[in-house]
Specification:
Layout (H helix, E strand, L loop, with lengths): L1 H8 L8 H26 L8 H22 L5 H22 L10 H11 L8 H18 L27 H18 L15 H11 L1 H26 L1
Helix pairs in contact: 2-3, 2-8, 2-9, 3-5, 3-7, 4-5, 5-7, 6-7
């Protein structure tokens, strides 16, 4: 019995795969920048032309983060627990946006809702061969793209990617096609990282830049939860100071 509890609480000597943490950190920094620019333009009325990289991040950054999450889920053993934690965070986001913002900015099924769903359902197909998972992922992506070509009359099917006329949301990551992107990441994790080691063994992961992005990636959920109120609060204070100076 003593050995059981010792093993349960003993910290495992596992080495994280630095590039996954770093890329995830890069993605979450992109999210912070996009949301900060959105706040400046839409909530505080300071309109300016956005650079091309902003549009790229806004369009593809979320997809890349979902794919990375699919890769990472194959390396851990607690996807149910993590899924529950992310689901709770998603509900908090929904509650806060409904209380504080206009209806068009409410988040009913954002990236955290999606990731919670993906983590909680991962066990249904985790033992399938990776080519089958990849094939299903591609089919789900195609299905989600097809869903964008028409509207439905039922207003409650939006989690699937089926939206009614007039549907609006501050952050929207429907199950289709994004479950497909997640499953493509799972297939990548089962092949590229089947040995659970870095693909870039010659890179010095102690480099300060890599360590910074890796640190951000390891704490991506916490940063995601805290960044918007912090960014909004800082911008609010700046706007008050500017108005007083004027």
């Amino acid at each position: 019995m003593k050995e059981f509890f010792t093993g349960l609480f003993k910290k495992k000597n596992t080495k994280r795969i630095w590039e996954l943490d770093a890329f995830r950190g890069l993605c979450i920094i992109g999210v912070v920048i996009v949301h900060a620019i959105f706040d400046i333009r839409e909530l505080f009325g300071f309109y300016f032309e956005t650079p091309a990289w902003f549009d790229w991040i806004q369009t593809y950054g979320g997809i890349l983060f979902v794919v990375l999450s699919g890769v990472c889920v194959t390396l851990g053993h607690h996807h149910i627990i993590r899924g529950v934690v992310v689901a709770v965070c998603a509900m908090i986001i929904t509650l806060v946006t409904c209380l504080l913002f206009d209806r068009s900015l409410h988040i009913w099924f954002g990236v955290l809702h999606l990731l919670a769903f993906c983590m909680l359902t991962y066990g249904l197909y985790r033992k399938l061969p990776w080519p089958v998972i990849l094939g299903l992922g591609v089919c789900f992506v195609a299905l989600g793209i097809w869903f964008t070509t028409f509207k439905v009359s039922n207003p409650y099917l939006f989690p699937l990617g089926l939206t009614a006329k007039g549907f609006a949301a501050g952050d929207y990551f429907p199950i289709f096609p994004h479950l497909g992107y997640f499953m493509i990441g799972v297939a990548g994790g089962k092949t590229l990282y089947k040995n659970k080691v870095t693909l870039f063994k010659k890179v010095n992961d102690r480099n300060p830049v890599i360590r910074f992005f890796s640190f951000v990636g390891r704490h991506s959920l916490l940063i995601y939860m805290l960044h918007q109120p912090l960014v909004y609060g800082i911008l609010f204070l700046i706007s008050r100071l500017v108005n007083r100076a004027a």
